[in-house]
Amino acid sequence: MLEKIKATASFIKERINDEPEIGIILGTGLGGLVNEIEIIESIPYSEIPGFPVSTVDGHAGRLIYGALGDKKVLAMQGRFHYYEGYSMKEVTFPVRVLKFTGITHLFVSNASGGLNPTWQVGEIVLITDHINFFPEHPLRGKNEKELGPRFPDMSKCYDERLRNKAKLIALQNNIVVKEGVYVGVSGPTFETPAEYKMFRLLGADVVGMSTVPEVIVARHMNLKVFGISIVTDSGVPGEIVEISHQEVQEVAMKAEPKMTLIMKELIKSI
Ligand code: HPA
Questions:
Q1: Which of 9, 33, 64, 66 could make an SS bond with 100 (beta carbons 3.0 to 4.6 A apart)?
Q2: Which residues line ligand 1 at a C-beta cut-off of 6 Å?
Q3: Alpha-carbon separation of residue 162 from 65, 127, 242, 258 (angstroms)
Q4: Ligand 1 atom index nearest CA of 185
């Protein structure tokens, strides 16, 4: 695996001929950040050796290299979800590769169902911690020492300094943000009311189908992580209504300018 990661990272480094500082996974609700990047190079996933190809509507697959303020960023437009059928090694492969191109920070976004009864649909949540509820662990199997330790610490997954900066940026721009725990599940079904209730009882504020595997792997390699989520639907008893992927996308689109601003300013401030 190590050889494959290094080969793919070399391919990317040769294409961009530079060293990126920050990796971004542009999940639902953050597509607009692409427009803020001065694009230097754009590589379709299909051209990247070793990369899986994404299959879901609304997740175009390409790697974008460019400048955001004075920072060099490598952004994944489209991610790989476990529910698409990829193994956890495939889901997290791009994060490994990004690390080997030289990044020190990983910024991730996602859409989620809201579990905290005091929050609304449309809420922006800074992720403070996560619960891994996926049926497969991305680090299961032989550990590569060069990537990270056998038993990685997960006590501080989401960097507090980055989160505090994000809170300040939100405050300065009159954007309301919450902080909370994200539980990552396999999907592709949205939760039943009983499942939403269970995840609330387990201590989560939002539930979604991504992010956790990527963050585990990022932390394994000691990358600093910032995660942000947009609550696109409610899993709170009495508020649950039928939802679809399209509705999730629509709500996320509305919050996009705010998420984009926070992310852009935060990256510039590092
Ligand atoms: N559950 C799981 N994943 C999601 C949801 C949800 O309610 N909304 C957006 N992604």
A1: 9
A2: 111-113, 190-191, 207-209, 232-233, 235, 248
A3: 22, 11, 35, 17
A4: 2
In ligand 1, the atom with minimum distance to the C-alpha of 190 is 1
Q: How many CB atoms lie within 10 A of CB 72?
A: 17
144 CA to centre of ligand 1 in angstroms: 33
Name the residue with the closest Cα to ligand 1, atom 7.
113
CA distance 191 to 201: 14
17: which residues sit within 8 A by CB, 6+ positions away? none
Structural domains in the chain?
A: 2-269 (3.40.50.1580)
Closest CA to 41 of 10, 19, 9, 74: 74
Going 14 to 15 to 16 to 19, the CA torsion angle's sign is negative
Its pTM surpasses 0.85: yes
Q: What is the dihedral of CA 64, 225, 93, 73, to 10 degrees?
A: 20
- Nearest C-alpha to atom 2 of ligand 1 is from which residue? 208
The sign of the torsion formed by the CA atoms of 11, 54, 256, 34 equals positive
pLDDT tens per residue across span 126-164: 999 999 999 999 999 999 999 999 999 999 999 999 999
Structure tokens at 36: 């803020």
Closest CA relative to residue 188, chosen from 108, 253, 244? 244
